[in-house]
Write a structure and sequence with these properties.
With about 450 residues, the chain is an alpha/beta fold. The chain has one domain: Rossmann fold (3-Layer(aba) Sandwich). It is about 40% helix and about 10% strand. A 9-stranded mixed sheet has the order 1-3-2-4-5-6-7-8-9, with helices on both faces. Helix 5 (about 130-140) links the parallel strand 4 (about 120-130) and strand 5 (about 150-155). It is globular.
Length: about 450
C-alpha cells in the first residue's frame, strides 16, 4: 500500500505497544446467566501481518447489544511469529507449520469449554472473519477438531485466489527470512529479541513483492497436519460441507492496495496486458484486457489491473465456492458490497475493508480512518443497520433475512442470487456473471 505520512486508507491497523505474549481474547455478553445465547466469534484480518482482535473497530458491543449475542474476538500470532515454521522432521515440529491456526484453534477450545459461563451456547457458534480472518475461518472449517466447534461461517473478502504453498514450496521464503534476520539457522534466530524478528519481515517483503500482485510476504502453509487442502476447498468436504456459509466481497477490492499509489497510476496497457498474460496466457491477454475495458467506459490501464486483481484474488474464487456449494445442495448466501466511499476523491470506491463499519454498525469507532470520510450519515446509517441486522440474523438462525431488507435468497444453480449492498440494497441474479464467465475460460494459472 502507498503510505505517505501514515496509512491513507485505514489510518492504522493497530498501534504499539505490541508483545509476543498476545494470545488473549475478549468477550461481550448481554448478561452472565444461563440463557445460552448464540455466539459470534470474530477473527480479524490484516494481510497476515497486522491487526488485533482488541482494536475498537472490532468491538463486539454492537452485536451483543443489538442481537442478544455473545461475541468473542481473538488475537493470534502474526507475521514471522505465526506464519513461519522451521520443520526439523520431528513430530513436535511437524505440528508448528501454521501457528496462527493452532492459536485460533486454542481460542475455539476456550469458547467450547467456557462460553456457557458468559451466557453463550457452545452448540450455536458462528465463526466470522474478514480478509485473512475469512481465510482463517475457512481453514478452521477444514480442521477435523475445529469444524466440530462451530455451525456457521461468515466469510468477508476471503483472498481465496492466493496460492497456498506446501512446506517445500515455502522453504524459499524461510531461507530469505533467515537471511534478512542475519542468522544462519533457527537456533540463532531463537536468540533474537522478538522486535528484531518483526524488523526482519521488511526484508522478506522486499524479496517477495511483485508488480501487480497483492503483497503477501507471509502465507499459510498446506502442511497436511493442520491444513490439508486450500481453504477455498474446505467447505466442500466432509463435515465442513454441513456448515452454513455467508460469503461476499466488495466491488473494488484491489483499490484498497493500488488506487492511491502514484506508481500504479502510471501503468501502461502493455504492462497490464503482460500481467494478464500471467493469468490467462499470452494468446488471450489482449482480448481479456479489452473485455475488462469494455465494462468500464473510460477505463485507464490501472483500472483494468485493479478489476483483474479484485476478480482473481477475491470475487471469482468466492463465486466458485458458492457455485460448488450450490451444485451440491449446501446452503450458501452471497453478497457484493457496492457502496463507494467518497474519500480521496472517490478513487477508493467500494474498496477492501469498507464493509466493516457497516457490518459492525460502529462508525464512531472509525473516526480515525480516511476510508469513511465524507460518507453521508443518513445513507451510511441505513445501510449499516441493514447489514448489521443481516449478520445478526445469520448468527442466530443460519439465515440472513430480516424484516428491514428485501428477501435474500440462497445462491442456487438456477438464479445465483447475490445481495447487492448499496444506497439501495437489492438481490441481483448472477451479479458477478461477467467475472465468472471471463475467468471460466482461463488458459493458464498465475
Amino acid at each position: 500500500m502507498y503510505i505517505d505520512g501514515g496509512d491513507p486508507v485505514l489510518g492504522g491497523h493497530g498501534s504499539p505497544p505490541f508483545d509476543d505474549d498476545c494470545l488473549t481474547l475478549n468477550v461481550w455478553t448481554p448478561a452472565v446467566d444461563d440463557a445460552r445465547r448464540p455466539v459470534l466469534v470474530w477473527i480479524h484480518g490484516g494481510g497476515f501481518v497486522s491487526g488485533s482482535g482488541s482494536l475498537p473497530i472490532y468491538s463486539g458491543e454492537t452485536f451483543a447489544r443489538d442481537g442478544d449475542l455473545v461475541v468473542v474476538t481473538l488475537n493470534y500470532r502474526l507475521g514471522p511469529l505465526g506464519y513461519l515454521s522451521f520443520d526439523d522432521g520431528t513430530a513436535a515440529e511437524a505440528q508448528s507449520a501454521n501457528l496462527w491456526l493452532t492459536d485460533q484453534l486454542t481460542a475455539l477450545r476456550w469458547v467450547r469449554d467456557n462460553i456457557a459461563h458468559f451466557g453463550g451456547d457452545p452448540d450455536t457458534v458462528t465463526v466470522a472473519g474478514q480478509s485473512g480472518g475469512a481465510l482463517s475461518t475457512a481453514a478452521l472449517a477444514g480442521h477435523p477438531e475445529a469444524q466440530k466447534m462451530f455451525r456457521r461461517a461468515i466469510l468477508q473478502s476471503p483472498p481465496f485466489g492466493l496460492h497456498i504453498p506446501t512446506r517445500d514450496e515455502y522453504r524459499e521464503r524461510i531461507d530469505a527470512y533467515l537471511e534478512s534476520a542475519g542468522v544462519k539457522d533457527v537456533d540463532e534466530l531463537r536468540h533474537l529479541p522478538w522486535p528484531r524478528l518483526l524488523e526482519a519481515a521488511g526484508g522478506l517483503y522486499a524479496r517477495t513483492v511483485r508488480w501487480g500482485f497483492w503483497p503477501t510476504p507471509f502465507l499459510p502453509v498446506q502442511d497436511d497436519v493442520t491444513l490439508f487442502r486450500h481453504p477455498a476447498e474446505t467447505l466442500l468436504h466432509g463435515a465442513a460441507a454441513e456448515v452454513d456459509v455467508l460469503i461476499g466481497w466488495t466491488r473494488e477490492e484491489a483499490n484498497f492496495n493500488f488506487a492511491l499509489d502514484p506508481a500504479y497510476a502510471k501503468s501502461t496497457r502493455a504492462q497490464v496486458v503482460g500481467r494478464i498474460a500471467e493469468r490467462f496466457g499470452d494468446r488471450t491477454a489482449a482480448d481479456v484486457y479489452d473485455e475488462y475495458a469494455r465494462t468500464r467506459p473510460g477505463a485507464r490501464p490501472v483500472d483494468v489491473l485493479m478489476d483483474l486483481i479484485s476478480d482473481e484474488l477475491f470475487r471469482v474464487p468466492c463465486v466458485q465456492l458458492a457455485e460448488a456449494r450450490a451444485a451440491s445442495g449446501r446452503p450458501v448466501w452471497a453478497f457484493q458490497f457496492d457502496f463507494p466511499t467518497p474519500a480521496h476523491g472517490g478513487r477508493l470506491a467500494a474498496a477492501h475493508c469498507l464493509e466493516l463499519p457497516f457490518v459492525f454498525d460502529n462508525f464512531d469507532s472509525w473516526s480515525h480512518a480516511p476510508l469513511v470520510e465524507g460518507i453521508d450519515p443518513v445513507v451510511g446509517d441505513g445501510l449499516a443497520k441493514s447489514m448489521h441486522q443481516a449478520w445478526i440474523a445469520f448468527a442466530r438462525t443460519g439465515d440472513p433475512n430480516h424484516p428491514g431488507m428485501p428477501t435474500w435468497g440462497r445462491y442456487l444453480e438456477g438464479d445465483r442470487t447475490t445481495m447487492r449492498f448499496d444506497s439501495v440494497t437489492l438481490p441481483v441474479n448472477d451479479l458477478a456473471g461477467h467475472a465468472r464467465r471471463l475467468h471460466g475460460r482461463r488458459v493458464s494459472a498465475s
